Amino acid sequence: MQINTTIQDASSVVKPVANQAAESTNKNQATATQPQAESESSVKISTQAMALSQQSQMHSTDTMTSAGTLPSAPVQGDVTEQYVDYRKAKAQYQIYSDMAGAMTGNSSGLSPVTAHYASNNDEAREALVNSKAQQHQISTMQIYAETTQGLYTQA
Fold first, then answer.
1. How many Å apart are CA 10 and CA 134, to the nearest integer?
2. Which phi and psi angles does 101 have, rounded to 5°?
3. Per-residue pLDDT of the chain (155 residues; tens, 9 = 90+)
4. What are the CA-CA distances from residue 40 to residues 43, 47, 152 (Å)?
5. CA–CA separation, 47 vs 56, rounded Å?
6. Measured between alpha carbons, how far is residue 137 from residues 111, 131, 132, 143 in Å?
7. Which residues are CB-neighbours of 111 under 8 A, at least 6 positions away?
8. How many CB atoms lie within 10 A of CB 99?
């Protein structure tokens, strides 16, 4: 798109209504015979609009230079180390969460990470087996108490 700047004088801005109507019909007839590509590719801007455009361009270049330098990108090794540390912490949290759930009897199972940890760590495996055995004993004693209580109330 091409931008044409023209200076408009006061006589061309204020015209009588009758002259404007006559000019618009002449322009409509002229554009009907000419292709519209020429009118679509050029735009006329007033001097006031041009001044405002230049002011905004000056302002934008001032803010670009006053912004300063951007912070440097992190070193790739730092990002990798931070990601590895994050993944380790996430796995460790998952293990602790599953172990706590298994010890209290509030878990529905172990995650693959916890199962792998328990299979490679004797102390963790022993703690899980002991807690499950204790939970089984408690469950058995509760069933025995309910059953015997029903027998004594019948007698």
1. 99
2. -65, -40
3. 455 555 554 444 444 544 555 555 555 555 555 555 555 677 788 888 888 888 877 766 655 555 567 767 667 778 888 999 999 999 999 999 998 888 888 877 888 989 999 999 999 999 999 998 999 999 999 999 998 887 777 65
4. 8, 21, 101
5. 14
6. 24, 10, 9, 10
7. 94, 98
8. 19
Q: Which residues contact 118 (CB under 8 A, 6 or more apart)?
A: 110, 124, 125, 128
Q: If DSSP codes are grouped into helix, strand and coil, which group holds residue 3?
A: strand
Query: Number of helices and strands (H, E) in the chain?
Result: 7, 2
Tokens found for residue 35:
């292709």
Other CB atoms within 10 A of residue 128 CB:
19
Coil, helix or strand at residue 49: helix
Q: By three-state DSSP, how is residue 115 classified?
A: helix
Tokens at 64, concatenated: 């670009």
Question: What is the separation, in whole angstroms, between the first and last Cα of the chain?
Answer: 103
